[in-house]
Amino acid sequence: MQVFTVIDGRVECGALLHSHTLSNGMVIPVIAVGEEGRGRKQAMIPVANVPRSDDAPGRLLYADLGSTKSGGPKLIARQEPGGDTEAIVVFRTGIGYRGGNSHTGDRAGWACRRWGCKAEGDGQYPATCPDCGHDVTIRFAPFPGRILATGIIAQGNAGRMGSGEQIVAVVPRGVVFRTGYSGRLYGRPAAHYYLFDGEQLLAATWEERMATDILPLPYARPEPVNDVTIADILALAAKLPAGLPDTGAIDKLQHERGELQAALTTGDMPGAFTEVADVAYYAAKAIHEAANAAGLTVEQALAVCAAKYGLRAQPGNPKDDAAERAAVLAVLGE
């Protein structure tokens, strides 16, 4: 089997071997996960058939699975990969600040967060529970691999600030699995998804899966939203109390952008989506108000925008006021 190491979405071929001294003084090569210390646990798997070296043991690229005399797992190093139906993966999974981690299968539907509401479903999760309107949570399938060893990492002297597991596992070919991270991540992804295709171990975030074909999705890709134009938004705006033109649109746009940031900070994604709607609404109204003030239509405003910034987007991003003035006048036929 091929051996891989996974570190929060980064995949490395092989696994680093460590030298471990037994109580009788014998030194053996091992794969280790976790940490030593209070609130922590280091787990090791011995590796047999490693070429002797005076230097560090090196990396284990291919191995078979065996067992020790006591029945524990043992890896037997080999020079070629052998079968390609499974792979050995060393998960050096991290944790967020004061957080934890998880090792699961792929997404497997959703369930309502509200206590007592038993609503759940398969496929892409809705913004809110269709039964009670509360938030929903994503369900994940069980981890599909066979776990050979489990270590524990932690934060703080006593390991109480946050902790998580690091594992060594045998994973099957063609089945998606996941590492998730909780706590303060400071902009890092909250999860990565992986798939062993028989030759390599692929990795992607959920957003990358949705945008590409790197990994298969657990359910059908959502249908694209029908095209909506600025004219469609302005037609709705004309029916509302503020009407058109709205001279306060720019100030309202700034306010809604602040509301969006607040929702993102608290992790309220359904709320963030509604704030995006507000930002789009007032952005369209701001374009209309600016165009109206200059005696232009919205279509003309977009045309002069493309003319001016078409010049700015040239190599070197030049700023030539005279050329920009000439370009916008040409678009307007003046």
Structural commentary:
The protein has 334 residues and is of the alpha+beta class. Helices cover 25% and strands 31% of the residues. The protein has a 5-stranded mixed sheet, with no helix packed on it. A 5-stranded mixed sheet has the order 4-5-6-9-8, with no helix packed on it.
Topology (SSEs and partners):
Blueprint: E1 2-7, E2 10-13, E3 15-16, E4 18-21, E5 27-34, E6 42-48, E7 59-60, E8 62-67, E9 73-78, E10 86-91, E11 101-105, E12 107-112, E13 120-121, E14 136-140, E15 146-155, E16 162-172, E17 177-181, E18 191-196, E19 201-204, H1 206-211, H2 230-237, H3 249-266, H4 269-293, H5 298-312, H6 321-331
Helix pairs in contact: 2-4, 3-4, 5-6
What are its keywords?
single chain; 334 residues; alpha+beta; 3 domains; five-stranded mixed beta sheet; 31% strand
Structural category: alpha+beta
Which range does the strand content fall in?
25-35%
Give the neighbour order of strands across the main sheet: 2-1-10-16-15
Largest sheet: 5 strands, mixed
Oligomer: single chain
Please state the average pLDDT score: 90
The best one-word shape is elongated
Low-confidence stretches: none
Along the chain, the helix and strand elements come as EEEEEEEEEEEEEEEEEEEHHHHHH
Query: What fraction, in percent, of the residue positions are helical?
Result: 10-25%
Number of helices: 6
Count of discrete domains = 3
Task: Tell me the number of strands.
Answer: 19
Gyration radius from CA atoms, angstroms: 28 Å
N-end to C-end Cα span: 72 Å
